[in-house]
Amino acid sequence: xxxxxxxxxxxxxxxxxxxxxxxxxxxxxxxxxxxxxxxxxxxxxxxxxxxxxxxxxxxxxxxxxxxxxxxxxxxxxxxxxxxxxxxxxxxxxxxxxxxxxxxxxxxxxxxxxxxxxxxxxxxxxxxxxxxxxxxxxxxxxxxxxxxxxxxxxxxxxxxxxxxxxxxxxxxxxxxxxxxxxxxxxxxxxxxxxxxxxxxxxxxxxxxxxxxxxxx
Length: 215
Prior knowledge:
Strand content: 5-15%
Largest sheet: 5 strands, parallel
Low-confidence stretches: none
Helix content: 40-55%
CATH architecture of the largest domain: 3-Layer(aba) Sandwich
Number of helices: 8
Order of helices and strands: EHEHEEHEEEHHHHH
Number of domains: 3
CATH superfamily of the largest domain: NAD(P)-binding Rossmann-like Domain
């Protein structure tokens, strides 16, 4: 079995090709749309939801079956047809061209697999069984998701803002690291949950961090 490495990709402006227009492709498109990727589907037919997405101009659709050469210029490819032999051909072409390929029927035939995941703003949690048991990954992901409420979105948004403020105001690398460490140790989530958290001033942030640590 392959030893998969987790990775987060910035797909803004990247061409992502899906061959096949069924429910599997639909799920992939739902994940890809917020990324800003350039999404292209090659398929004779689309699900009603995908067709609506195409009509809204959010994706490009080439209405025909896959042909060798379709993968040219793609950054990432998803083989999602209901024909294993066609998916195998797509995977073979992707490997020839050095393009990342997700094989929906046989994950091991591709170069990457998609984990089960959920999102709270910029917080993304993904669970994978390395392709061994996708349903188990979904179940574990659902169990973890119950532990993370909407307050985590506000928490991560605050941490992102605080990190930028510290970078802007503190030029000494060692002091920066110390402030990041102190910030991570503060139980901001507790204050958010009780509705008491309201810090928004850049000028007060560093002194607030130091006071919290003293307490």
